[in-house]
């Protein structure tokens, strides 16, 4: 298996699974985004193996992530814990290669079922909002020692190394300038115990399962110290653009149909916010910052897709990313929605 920075050969994978006492026949490759993910099914049940390059996350950063998960779980969040490896008595097993260090963690598998189109309703939107709100409420109650080794949101590699390493010359210069502008504007916002803390930063439909009236949350790889409104923006962004547009409307075009995004938000925002408010409070004036953080997330996703060479795959994708580049450079927010009135904007 190969990423943009790391190769896991068959020999290395075999060494890893032998050390972790995993039967070769029980392991199945699931996919790669920022980590290599495998599913394991044996007599003890199903588990998830995540293999992370040290170039992506250090051992201390992962350790802090796992502490955060356990804190949330101890306080009522249904999160997938790391499993201690009996070979070394640790949750993290690290393997050195000639070019990298790989950190391996076994996780419990979430209970319940993945979200699909048939499950999109007010109940799910409420549960989603309540989950985000509960994470934020617990974040501003927790000890700073738990999250001390996690980075701040603006130190995410996509805003720093990756934007220079993977965006091509001719596009990079303007995108880097815009990134600096957006981050500078965001960092002018007040940082208080009620506005800023540990956030999941990827809490969308693909990162939780529904189990009855509960949601099981996983994939904390992007968790960082950040504004709670940033986490809300990310949850909404992925729900609207990544899921609803593509799954419900079979729409894979550039983010140009701003009215469509407004219509989707009109449907999900009220129950989502009712759920959030049932667990946490945030002042209404923070709604005014959602467009800024939508811009930040749009840019972050733009860099992420270049990192994975998505724009180079065919002419249609190249065209889509040309439009998205223009939107980012001209600071166009592809969302037509008024968060005060909770209504889509049609003109």
Could you please describe the fold and organization of this structure?
It is built from 9 helices and 13 strands. The protein has helices spanning 10-19, 59-74, 122-139, 161-165, 172-186, 228-248, 258-279, 290-307, 315-329, and strands at 27-32, 36-42, 45-53, 82-83, 93-96, 101-108, 113-114, 196-199, 208-211, 214-217, 224-227, 337-338, 343-344. α3 crosses α7, α6 crosses α7 and α6 packs across α8. The protein starts with 9 loop residues before the first helix and ends with a strand.
List keywords for this structure.
single chain, 347 residues, alpha+beta, three-stranded antiparallel beta sheet, 40% helix, 17% strand
Summarize, please.
By secondary structure, the protein is an alpha+beta fold. The protein has helices spanning 10-19, 59-74, 122-139, 161-165, 172-186, 228-248, 258-279, 290-307, 315-329; strands at residues 27-32, 36-42, 45-53, 82-83, 93-96, 101-108, 113-114, 196-199, 208-211, 214-217, 224-227, 337-338, 343-344.
| Helix/strand order, N-terminal first | HEEEHEEEEHHHEEEEHHHHEE
Tell me the number of strands.
13
As a percent range, the share of helical residues equals 40-55%
Broad shape: globular
Largest sheet: 6 strands, antiparallel
> In angstroms, what is the radius of gyration?
20 Å
pLDDT averaged residue by residue: 92
Q: Span from first to last CA?
A: 48 Å
How big a fraction of the residues is strand? 15-25%
Q: Which helices and strands, and how do they pair?
A:
Elements: H1 10-19, E1 27-32, E2 36-42, E3 45-53, H2 59-74, E4 82-83, E5 93-96, E6 101-108, E7 113-114, H3 122-139, H4 161-165, H5 172-186, E8 196-199, E9 208-211, E10 214-217, E11 224-227, H6 228-248, H7 258-279, H8 290-307, H9 315-329, E12 337-338, E13 343-344
Antiparallel strand pairs: 1-2, 2-3, 3-6, 4-6, 5-6, 7-9, 8-11, 9-10, 12-13
Helix pairs in contact: 3-7, 5-8, 6-7, 6-8, 8-9
């Amino acid at each position: 298996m190969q990423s943009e920075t790391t190769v896991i050969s068959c020999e290395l994978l075999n060494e890893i699974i032998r050390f972790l006492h995993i039967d070769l026949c029980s392991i199945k490759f699931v996919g790669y985004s920022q980590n290599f993910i495998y599913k394991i099914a044996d007599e003890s049940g199903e588990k998830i193996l995540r293999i992370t390059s040290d170039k992506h996350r250090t051992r201390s950063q992962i350790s802090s992530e796992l502490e955060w998960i356990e804190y949330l779980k101890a306080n009522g969040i249904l999160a997938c814990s790391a499993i201690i490896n009996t070979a070394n008595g640790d949750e993290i097993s690290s393997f050195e290669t000639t070019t990298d260090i790989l950190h391996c963690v076994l996780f419990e598998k979430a209970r319940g079922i993945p979200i699909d189109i048939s499950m999109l309703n007010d109940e799910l939107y409420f549960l989603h909002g309540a989950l985000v709100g509960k994470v934020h409420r617990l974040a501003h109650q927790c000890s700073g020692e738990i999250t001390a080794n996690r980075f701040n949101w603006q130190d995410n590699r996509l805003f720093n190394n990756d934007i220079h390493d993977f965006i091509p010359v001719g596009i990079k210069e303007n995108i880097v300038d815009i990134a600096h502008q957006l981050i500078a504007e965001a960092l002018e916002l007040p940082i208080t115990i009620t506005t800023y803390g540990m956030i999941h930063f990827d809490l969308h439909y693909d990162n939780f399962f529904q189990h009855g009236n509960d949601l099981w949350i996983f994939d904390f790889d992007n968790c960082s110290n950040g504004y709670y409104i940033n986490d809300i923006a990310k949850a909404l962004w992925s729900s609207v653009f990544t899921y609803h547009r593509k799954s419900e409307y079979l729409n894979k075009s550039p983010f140009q149909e701003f009215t469509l995004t407004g219509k989707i938000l009109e449907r999900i925002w009220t129950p989502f916010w009712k759920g959030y408010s049932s667990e946490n409070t945030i002042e209404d004036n923070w709604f005014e910052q959602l467009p800024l953080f939508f811009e930040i997330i749009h840019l972050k996703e733009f860099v992420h897709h270049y990192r994975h060479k998505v724009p180079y795959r065919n002419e249609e994708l190249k065209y889509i990313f040309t439009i998205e580049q223009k939107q980012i450079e001209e600071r166009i927010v592809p969302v037509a929605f008024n968060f005060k009135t909770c209504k889509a904007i049609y003109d």
